[in-house]
Specification:
The protein is of the alpha/beta class and about 290 residues long. The protein is built from 9 helices and 11 strands. It has an 8-stranded mixed β-sheet, with helices on both faces. It has a 3-stranded antiparallel β-sheet with strand order 2-3-6.
Length: about 290
């Protein structure tokens, strides 16, 4: 009984000291002591200008849909950061605020970084999706309409989750912003793959963690958007799109003329273009 009381008090304490990103609520999923695997980080988490490192506690920041516009759709949002950090502002809560204003509930994921433990981010993403589905009544969402969105290395994690989550637990749809996909040396974003798998990774490990090689007929419908001059080579997105089409999976690929990498919700010349395209795509999904 004492242990249960202590655990409840601890959870309340964690919620009370949750970081304020303008979210409606914060859900603590687990930490290194309770998750299936630890990432081995023992130092205190750091947040510098909403770029978070040394994460040991997995949390969901919930942004509830505008009640008058709520569609029942929801999205797990995974910021990027090269598996070195979590860029939670422009690839996280700003995106979630915009989506919630469109009637879509979002959970922005602060996930544990691998730190030599490659399985950890995937565990966090899968458990976060489970959490949102378990809370579907409370969040007023349809558990069959929980999608996933990722940016850069977060796009790799979203694409990997879309293919590797257990059957029945895959996202309903996937949205990938300038994702890291292939691990092939000529096209890979080496920093992300080094941070996830290590510089001494084998070809077998590289293939296993390259989402374009994991697509099956059960991979969800996907929306991809990137810039032609992206520093993460556009072939990452086109390879994933090509893999989807090999299995006749509905997909939408948008290559913007310019913008570079990592724009997220920042202002740039083609912000309205991707917003309109994504809004239209989500509405068509809603009406299916």
């Amino acid at each position: 009984m004492k242990r249960l009381v202590f655990a409840a008090l601890l959870m309340l304490s964690l919620e009370a000291f949750a970081q304020d990103f303008g979210q409606d609520r914060t859900i603590t999923i687990w930490d290194n002591s309770s998750a299936p695997h630890s990432n081995g980080v023992t130092a205190q988490e750091k947040n510098e200008n909403d770029v978070i490192t040394l994460v040991t506690q997995t949390q969901l920041y919930i942004y509830e849909a505008d009640k008058e516009k709520a569609t029942g759709q929801s999205i797990l949002v995974i910021p990027g950061g090269g598996y070195h950090c979590v860029c939670i502002e422009y690839e996280g809560y700003k995106m979630a605020k915009w989506l919630s204003s469109q009637g879509i509930t979002c959970g922005v994921l602060k996930y544990r970084l691998p730190n030599g433990h490659r399985e950890v981010p995937l565990e966090d993403a899968i458990e976060a999706m489970r959490t949102m589905r378990k809370m579907s009544k409370e969040l007023n969402i349809d558990p069959a309409k929980v999608g996933i969105m990722g940016f850069s290395a977060g796009g790799h994690l979203a694409a990997y989750t879309s293919n590797f989550a257990p059957e029945g637990e895959k996202p309903a749809f996937s949205i990938l912003f300038y994702p890291v996909i292939t691990g092939e040396p000529l096209h890979a974003h080496a920093g992300s793959y080094d941070n996830l798998l290590g510089a001494d990774r084998t070809q077998e490990q590289t293939d296993r963690w390259s989402p374009d090689k994991l697509v099956t007929e059960r991979t969800p419908t996907t929306f991809l958007v990137l810039s032609d001059d992206d520093g993460v080579k556009p072939v990452n997105s086109t390879r994933f799109y090509g893999a989807l089409k090999q299995y006749n999976i509905p997909a939408s690929l948008h290559i913007l003329p310019s913008g570079g990498h990592g724009w997220g919700f920042r202002d740039f010349a083609y912000k309205a273009v991707w917003q309109n395209a994504l809004s239209d795509w989500l509405k068509r999904l809603e009406n299916k």
